Fold this sequence. Notes:
alpha/beta, D-Maltodextrin-Binding Protein, domain 2, 2 domains, 5-stranded mixed sheet, 12 strands, 39% helix, globular
Amino acid sequence: MRQKKWTIVVWMLVLSLFTAACGGGGGAADKKKEETPVVDPAAQPAEVVIYDTTGEKLELLMDKYGNKLKEKFPKYTFEIIPQVNSQTLPTLITSGKTIDIVVESTGVNLMNYNLQSDISDLITKYKVDLNRLEPTTIELQRKMAAGGIYGLPSWTRSLIIYYNKDLFDKFGIPYPKEGITWDELYALARTMTRQDGGTNYKGVTMAFDFGLMLNQLESPTQDPKTGKALFLQDPIKKVFENQARFYQIAGNELPGNRYYLDNQQSPFYKDKTVAMFLTLSGAEKMYKESVNWDVAPYPTWEGKPGIGSQSYPTYFFLTSASKNRDAAFQVLSYTVSDEFQKFSARAGNITILKDTSAMKDFAADLPYVKGKNLKAMIPKKYAAPTLKTKYNATANKELLAALEAVTKGTDVNTALRDAAERNDKQVTSEQSK
């Protein structure tokens, strides 16, 4: 009996030694594995090339985000290339330049040159919480990437009313109010369109194409899959007619029946002969020393109180060409952080966070916006985003041509039908290349 007990004890000792030798129970191999630190991509040297399509000069881009990125990522070497002059995306690609990040709003440039890349894996890997972000900015990405996501939003803009306080004061007319409807704006534009002292004053001009592209009725201008025109379909036709009627007010016509942004904007802030200009927020720096301006919320549709334009976010897109995705992704992740959003809001950029507390110091670094109605730049609710196709520029061009035709006397249906035919012909031609 005693011999059996000793035999059991011996076998238990052997078994425990064997288990320990095999690494069971937290052996040295497991401890080494557990103690291996996760490499922080931001702590390693990396070269990051950013191509910016916004049209701003390099010094402005450095102020907007370049210097902040250099401060945050001292190990990185940044090259920021603005889209100016000969520095086009196809030129850079042809030259063999590797672009890690593309900065733009619609993503059209990204997809035109097949640079899109789904970053869902990196969002999961680095635990980026998309629920912190304004929902429509992510909804647009989901639509664009068929459920995936190509980039992260960094700031946004919305359509608003800039108005010349001096003109309203001159004629004793109340400023445009919060909650103003399109019909009320139309009546106000007619009132402010007049001749005085030999000068012709216009009630309103607008960035017509942006009004269509970011419309509140959430209607695309082209079929998202084919690029074919939807111009004659409601509600986009309704949006077109609504905006076009302002140019049929006597005295408020298009100059020479031609539309281009400069002949809409310059009379507002240079000539000071336009009472209201409907455009994207962010023009404050341009207007600061020229016109006594303030802002009002974008007009609303009857039955849709509080619904503003669609958000027009600027995204940082990680490209498929990047050879260091993890390092480049740290830049995208940082731009949605509380730290960067507070910095960006102080510089006059609208936050893309659902928590808008960063806006309490909005434009604090811009003394020329003190006392302005800046809260009007953020609608109570953004309209749902519509997908912009790679042929979006064609749609914009033909819709502006349709506007010019209408101001010359062509009926809306004919003008839009002709514009749709031109759009479809151009899209088909591009698709066949």
